[in-house]
Amino acid sequence: MSGPVRDISEGLRGPGDETAAGTVTAGAMVRAEAVVREYPSGDAVVRALRGIDLTIGRGELLAIRGRSGSGKTTLLSILGGLDRPTSGRVLVDDLEVSALTEDELVDVRRRTVAFVYQAFGLVPFLSASENVEVPLRLVGTDPASRDARVAELLEMVGLEARARHRPYELSGGEQQRVAIARALANRPRLLLADEPTGQLDSDTGHRIMMLIRAIVRADGVTAVVATHDPAMLDVADRVVELRDGLLV
Ligand code: ADP
Ligand code: MG
Questions:
Q1: Residue 41 CB–ligand 1 contact under 6 Å
Q2: What's the mean pLDDT when you consider all of the chain?
């Protein structure tokens, strides 16, 4: 897949986009302060996050490692405004997401952040291009602009020839590339990927990580990737480890 990875910087760098490849610009993209998340569990409480302080720079590719149950999914959900901390604060792009209303959070999830999941999460009865189009419809993009953006995104991930295929007609790696294209549709500032290579063989997984890195490099997107696969870590700018809800 060297083709798509090599071509991606062309696809992503639009006219007027001044972001230099690989530049981490000033100011944090994400700031988590003393984030605690507790889940009630019968009479007890599960402390999934026990006080997370984390700053992520703009244009950084951060990997969060940690074994199953260490709190990776909980942390990504809170950074992306899908879940709220029990205490503590989260700022994304200078916006305090942990203090927003539900309506405001919906807007953040549509425009500022985007998620990629282990199980791809494509809509099974929609084609690759229709899946990529969904977020554009959600923000009311007009049809002509939608078509152009979908074509651009599928080309970026090297799947223009698969545009009309349904997910079941695609390999796992191809499905994840469609999911990444969909995640990027509305030009998010923050890409959150939860074990995106967990269902892929190691070669395909590595290509997906390289694709994510190419996107970060080309477009100044900030990416946070949770993984417990050590082979994926060399692609990141920085690796932090979660253990029992704490960064170590
Ligand atoms: P990871 O993604 O690293 O596997 P999670 O964030 O999913 O870890 O889970 C962290 C801890 O929080 C685990 O002990 C898990 O069982 C618990 N947990 C996660 N989600 C819930 C929930 N909705 N209700 C109760 N406990 C939960
Ligand atoms: Mg998880």
A1: yes
A2: 88
